[in-house]
Amino acid sequence: MEPIRKPFVQAGDETNLCVQDWGSGRPIVFLSAWTFNSSAWGEYINALTDGGHRCVALDRRGHGRSEAPCSGYDVDTLADDVSAVFEQRDLSDAILVAHSMGSIEAVRYLARHGVGRVKKLILIAPTTPFLKQTVDNPDGIPREFIDAQIRSIGDDFPKWVLENEGPFFTEATLAETRNWIKAMMLSVALPIALECRRTIGMADTRGDLAGLDVPTLIVEGDKDASAPLTLTGVKTERLIRGSRLIVYEGGPHGLPLTHRQRLLNG
């Protein structure tokens, strides 16, 4: 009989973080996209636990059933939250899977806490290495555009989600799936959503990636409107020694939802 696993771990600032922790065997740890929670990985957890894996999916602070403090949404604190999960659940030899914003948390976790507990990294539609335009990142997104997008989200979050729904999915994505994800996104308190959005726009993980020494697979669609392939996946592959980039033709930013079977079979 497996031991009962309580649904929370405690972050360094005593924030209670909810984790789904199912199955046994080699652990697979899932980190979610901006405003997503661990429920988005449900079909993966179901399939992979049946295949003999232990699946651990984190609700980022302020998301899902985790507590929602008024601080701690910077990339270093979020990476330390990931470390708390690894340490308190005693996870090792793990596959770390991160979608979108989760990619920033994953690589910063590895940079701050080492790769000793992780044997493989999978980045899906990453937002690494650095989105903001700077002198040494001239093809990035101008700061004024990032700020304008954050203002637009702050002015009317439901409207922004609706207006950006189309490119996130494929035409074949069911309305039920779209509605489920939109409700999940809007369940995050607006100040937290905005803080996390700022983290995505400003986080520079170039140094983290260049120092990374773990087998890494990057999967991204060539129709990703949220994190364009040339700005994210292509650059990330160049920075991580020995990494491999797989491009899904016609794939949008919501790959874990729109291309679930291909990801599971790959």
Structure write-up:
The protein has helices at 42-50, 75-88, 101-113, 143-155, 157-163, 165-168, 175-186, 190-202, 206-210, 233-239, 255-258, 260-265; strands at 8-10, 16-23, 26-31, 53-58, 94-99, 118-124, 216-221, 244-248. The model has no long low-confidence stretch (mean pLDDT 97). 40% of the residues lie in helices and 18% in strands. Helix 4 packs across helix 5. The chain starts with 7 loop residues before the first strand and ends with a helix. The protein is built from twelve helices and eight strands. The longest helix is centred in the first third of the chain and has 14 residues, at 75-88. It is of the alpha/beta class and 266 residues long. It has an eight-stranded mixed β-sheet, sandwiched between helices.
Describe the SSE topology.
Layout: E1 8-10, E2 16-23, E3 26-31, H1 42-50, E4 53-58, H2 75-88, E5 94-99, H3 101-113, E6 118-124, H4 143-155, H5 157-163, H6 165-168, H7 175-186, H8 190-202, H9 206-210, E7 216-221, H10 233-239, E8 244-248, H11 255-258, H12 260-265
Parallel strand pairs: 3-4, 3-5, 5-6, 6-7, 7-8
Antiparallel strand pairs: 1-2, 2-4
Helix pairs in contact: 2-3, 4-5, 4-8
Distinctive features:
single chain, 266 residues, alpha/beta, 8-stranded mixed beta sheet, 12 helices, 18% strand
* Topology pattern, helix = H, strand = E: EEEHEHEHEHHHHHHEHEHH
Number of helical runs? 12
Question: Which blocks of ≥5 consecutive residues have pLDDT under 50?
Answer: none
Strand order of the largest sheet: 1-2-4-3-5-6-7-8
User: How much of the residues is beta strand, in percent?
Assistant: 15-25%
Radius of gyration: 17 Å
Helix content: 40-55%
Note the gap between the termini: 31 Å
Structural class assignment: alpha/beta
Beta strands, count: 8
Largest sheet: 8 strands, mixed
Mean pLDDT: 97
Shape: globular
